[in-house]
Each structure stands twice: as structure tokens, then as C-alpha cells.
Amino acid sequence: MFRALSDPTRRAIFEELTREGEQTVHALTRFAGVSQPAVSKHLTVLKQAKLVRHRRDGRETHYRSRPEALAPLADWLRHYSVFWRERFDKLEEVLERMEP
Question: What pTM does this model have?
Fold first, then answer.
């Protein structure tokens, strides 16, 4: 998931799908400002990370985001948020004891 979202174009595509809803590859190509093959490659990475789903409708492929797939990332960040908050609280206590 980190690798998939580390690229700014992929992040922008994911955010666009999340904000605007389902879109075709052609619409995403116009949005991203890169070639259709490049958008398709980005979408493949996002699909592998389970961040987007697709459906075929005739010759068109439609993509939509799966923001719920970010839940493990949110949980991980929440865990480390508590970890760092505790560490900073302990550091603050130490610094207060060191003050003259």
C-alpha cells in the first residue's frame, strides 16, 4: 500500500476516484495529464494494492476507489501515534525535572 501511494500520480488518481467517484480510463488519462498506458500501469499498481476496483462495460473499463482498503494503514498510524505520544510525554517529564 505504501509503495502504491508513494507515487504522486497514483496518489492523485486515487484521490480523484475517491472524490469524484467511478471514472473511465479515458477520463483518468485526461485528469492525470499522462499517457493512457501510463495511467493503466498506475491503475494496475493500485489494483494490486486493493485500493481500486474495476468493471468492464463493453470496451470501456471503469475504476472506483476502495477507501476502506486504507483501514490497515489508519490502524497502523493510530498505533504509532499512541507510541510517540507516550514517548513525548516521558521526554517532557524528563526535561521538566532537568530544569533548574
Answer: 0.77
d(C-alpha 40, C-alpha 61), whole Å: 10
Q: How big is the chain by its Cα radius of gyration, in Å?
A: 20
pLDDT tens digits for range 47-96: 999 999 999 999 999 999 999 999 998 888 888 888 888 888 888 888 88
Find out whether 26 and 36 touch, Cβ atoms under 8 Å: yes
Give 58's strand partners.
none
Sign of CA dihedral 17, 7, 40, 31: positive
User: What's the average model confidence in pLDDT over 6-25?
Assistant: 96
Q: Residue 78 corresponds to which amino acid? A: R
Return all residues near 14 (Cβ < 8 A) that are at least 6 apart.
Answer: 5, 46, 51, 52, 65
- The count of other CB atoms within 10 Å of the CB of residue 37 is 9
